[in-house]
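User: Predict the full complex structure for these chains.
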Amino acid sequence: MTDDAPPELTPLDPAFITTSRIATALGLLPFVVGAGVLEFAKLLPPGTFLVPVLLAYAFVAYTVPARKYRHWGYDMGTDRLRVVRGYMFYSDTIVPFGRIQHIDVDQGPIDRRYGLAKLTVHTAGNHNSTVTLPGLAHADALAMRETIRAAIRQDML
Amino acid sequence: MNQSTHDPIDGTGQDGARLHISGLFVGFVSGLPQLLIPVFAAVFGVRKSDNPALIPLIIAAVLILSLFFRWLIWLRFRYHVGADDIRVEKGILNRTARSIPYERIQDVSIEQKPLARMMGLSEVKFETGGGDGDDATLRFVTLEEANRLRELIRARKAGVAVAQDVAPMVEAEDAETIFAMDGQRVFILGLYSFSLIIFAVLGGLAQQFDFLLPFDYWDLKRWAGLAVESGVSVNTLNGVGILGQLILAFGAFSSLIFIGLASGVVRTYLREHGFRLTQTSKGFRRQRGLLTLTDVVMPTHRVQAAVVQTGPIRKRRGWHSLKFVSLAQDSKEESNYVAAPLATLDEVWRIAAAAGIDAPDGDERLRNGAALHWIIQLLLLVPPLLVAMAALMLFADTPFATTLLLLLLLVLAALLLWCDWRRYRFGLDDQQLYLRRGWWQQQFTLAPQLKVQSIEIAQGPFARRFGLASLRFGIAGGTLEMVALPLSTARAIRTVVMEKVADVDYSAINQSR
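Assistant: Here is the predicted structure of the two-chain assembly.
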């Protein structure tokens, strides 16, 4: 393994940028509305609220998802799943298939629109026991689930 | 309604089965109490509208709405018994498809509550011991279907030997006591359990029942008045001289100590009296207690890690305590199983060995953390301190020299961090992981590598800059985090441990020991 972002990682589906833009944009909408209301109340010179809030909004909802996408990656090994994410707070997790208890494939409304899904694997215990991988093409998520399930099955035989 | 097979998020192409439709009714009736509040709220809302006819209408609307949502949920819920797993698909907008491999199903429980029973229905639960409390529940299917599922799963698992966690209430005949505490040792433990909690309890009681007290107990003058009435006043106190005051203060102090020790001893006696740990074929069995006797059995294979603890004073006398980190499954309130509250190291390692955890073979395997990690933590304290100094100078007109006193905090922090660094050790050998932490409460964790569930390498923004990383091992019932490792070391350790872990299936290790 090299020191910086190992090349063998598989990137997420590019549509993840779009879905996470939409999700962030919707989630942060109340702040924009709030700023608009404050602006409307004319407490301070025009633009004091709306301009910085809109700039921050554009940054968080447009630029950040693309950056986030670049730092996500995963690797399906023969006997383990590796999930890498984050730049500032970098995290690189490996879960051996042999420790996975059950597997979820989730699809929210936005995800479904873009044919994406989120894969969550659960290990035993309560702490740190789920590893989540969003932004997978739905078919990929299903295929990964089958692979993991088959691996669990084989371990037992 | 057969058209509702749209967007199956499961790619299997099979529809799976629906729950029994009568379950809707059972769920609806048993959910009625929860509807009371919305109904009351609604009724309360229209109360003023002078139209009493509205009230039954509202109630009907709430009921119908609830039934409608239950129906929607029912409509979108499917389970599918596959060749090697059970699949459950659910969710109205957020669709979840969960796959539970047969190998992971520990048990299938069938429950019949009275109402469901009248309808011939039952609730089926697949238990896996996974992260989420409810792994998968089918609420409700017919009793035949429930039995069929159970038989099916038992049959599927038949090829696999299953360690059933049998009810531990059986009196074990092959019990062998591996650790016990006599009265003297309980007493010593009591002394170490010094606590002033009694004052907190009294204070709490006083606050709770202060309306019963004839005076306000926070009223200092009142207490002073009480003292004067019994012939003590500030003047008499001044009159006894400096030595007398010292003696009085000493008396007050030592009575405080005495009360602390006594309450520690009493509490310890109540809990630990007759402590006995035995090993049976089923696992560890612990009996203790003076008034409330407790008797807890933990299967040996549930032990995920051992934690040996000691304090600065008890360490001098060679006393340690031993806890097992276990799969927090059946004992929700106590995920750590106290195997020995006060024991010598020899005893500790003997008990640990019984759980399959070996004593470390010398400190040479343990390594220091990179001091940089602690230096970064110290440096992170500097900016807030500077801000505080500036704020004091600007807003409180404090002279610069005085604000420099704040830097003493930095010295204190440096001292604490240094102590922490000095005690910290991590290491591993062929079988286990070791982690030692804490300079006051000293903690030594040992975990078999096979019990590791997941491994994460984490880096914060500063650690990343300096090439440091933390290594977090997920263990059922806890985590073990090694900090301050060079990234390359972290990667190397992970590779080594992962090789060992990935080879063996979790179900297999849970059954073998």
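Confidence is low (pLDDT under 50) at residues 1-5 of chain A.
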